[in-house]
Amino acid sequence: MKAMAKRIGLTGNEAIAYAAKQCDVDVVSAYPITPQTIIVEKYSEYVADGEVDTELVNVESEHSALSACIGASLTGARVFTATASQGLALMHEVLYIASGLRCPIVMGIANRALSAPLNIHGDHSDMMGSRDCGWIQIFAENAQEAYDWTIQAFRLSEDPGVLLPSCVNIDGFIISHSMEGVEVLEDGAVRAFLPPRSDARTIDPERPSTIGPVALPDYYFEFKRQQAEAMRKVPPVLEKVCREFEKASGRGYGKFQSYGMRDAKTAIVCMGSAAGTARHVAKALRGRGERVGMVKLWLYRPFPADELARELEGLRSVVVMDRAISFGAPFGPLCSDVIGAVHGKLPKLKILNAIYGLGGRDVTTRDMEALYRDGLRAAGAKALRAPVKYVGVRD
Amino acid sequence: MSIVEKRGWRGVPLGATIPEPGTSALYKTGAWRTFKPVIDQGKCVKCLICWIYCPDAAIKRKDGEVEIDYEYCKGCGICAAECPVKAIRMEEE
Predict the structure, then answer these.
(1) Which of B14, B20, B27 to mutate to test the interface with A (most CBs of A within 10 A)?
(2) Among A249, A266, A292, where does a domain finish?
(3) ipTM of the modeled complex
(4) Shortest alpha-carbon distance between residue B88 and chain A (Å)
(5) Is A209 an interface residue toward B (CB < 8 Å)?
(6) Is B29-92 a domain of CATH 3.10.180.10?
(7) Residue A301 · residue A137 · CB < 8 Å
């Protein structure tokens, strides 16, 4: 049954804060950093106005913020935080502790470039720098998706078969600061979708335990192997969570979203706000008879390798867009993952990699059309030269 | 749970939590030792300065004598260095 919904104007940051408010979060600990600040600022207003029953822990750094979140999460509390860029980088070692201790924390990330040179604008360098941290990583295209995924992320993380932290990524400024119409659920509908945490793993003085012990060469590997297995269990739980969320909201989600893939010869694979531009251009090109498509990944970790390979099966070429550089690597991080996903399955697929939009550089419809033309040319070509291209940078 | 019996990855507790207290006693660390402290009971004046200094609580008192618990002593040598009557010597294992 679809619950009564209302549509309100929210920026991406506000959409995440609003979702967290409805998720009945027990503890929030965070440190302000552009372009995320408004998430926590807005949430602190909810606390000050008595709209939520949340302990807001002010700390002196992101390292401490996530550390406080871990302590709270281990007591069985529902915990939320948010960060970006240098803040995520400062959290780096603590990210691994949160996932290693299996804390179902949810974090909003307004993706921003990493220094140096200093830049406050949107790209995916921050998340990509921590992509191996053991968190479930979701990328939203717009404020609506940011709202919907924040609610779904709590259900996913807190599933007793998963118990891993999640982060919901939005492109800094492009999504974090742009106001859009967002359809929000009634508080009661969110409560019904998201019951309180049910895992029994809480701190209890009656049952003393040791959390975060040392594990030497004789044990460490077993715990990491177990963590890899938890990641492997995410996709089926995600499907279940998305089905139930669709019942509550009428909006369906999954691992990725496709456009025009039924008959496409070439396609763009991307994440975040660029997907809107890619879809717009694909639509225009398809109107002129070009067989182009698009796949927007929602779920980046765990990477939906098998499903994505099946989705790309009919293509002759694909252009993978990376809003980050993996310095010294043969490709951008997303492209490396796509190549890994199709390895041994689609040997004839020609794969191009476009590095774009660093430090908030716009990616325009003209850029996007040029990438589709590259893809169409590659689809008919015998061999590929220089598969990595830097889009929109001055020579 | 016993931490002596080594379990596979399916059987280890979630997030490396040790679900019961006091299990560090099951983890014998004596094999880490290269040098072993040996007490000359004839010289020992039972001042227990070694007991105060031992970082591993490996100095025991038994029947009025001072003893070393070799299951946990890691052989750091602090007891030998601090002994005011030089009653403890370090022997290579």
Answers:
(1) B14
(2) A249
(3) 0.86
(4) 31
(5) yes
(6) no
(7) yes
